[in-house]
Design goal:
Layout lengths: L1 E4 L1 H6 L5 H19 L9 H27 L5 E4 L2
Antiparallel strand pairs: 1-2
């Protein structure tokens, strides 16, 4: 019997637990503030600055959720293959 990690499930499954939702929201807000702070004083239009700040904020916060799932909830994302 082989055990493999279901990477599709670990990456694409939306957060269902309250803790995962809170962690996702907090990291999203923190990274957005980090990326938006330098742009708010530039001559860039506000909508463009928000859009540019949201892209890295979303990708970093989702990557953090995936890493935490891999480290702490690995048993939920393992599937077995019988040979």
């Amino acid at each position: 019997m082989k055990l493999i990690l279901d990477t599709r499930k670990i990456f694409l499954k939306p957060p269902k637990s309250l803790l995962e939702r809170i962690v996702l929201f907090v990291t999203l807000v923190m990274t957005f503030m980090i990326f938006f702070a330098p742009l708010q004083f530039s001559s860039m239009p506000p909508v463009e600055a928000v859009a540019i700040s949201m892209l890295p904020a979303i990708s970093i916060s989702w990557g953090w959720i995936v890493l935490l799932r891999f480290l702490f909830r690995r048993s939920e994302f393992i599937k077995s293959i019988n040979e």
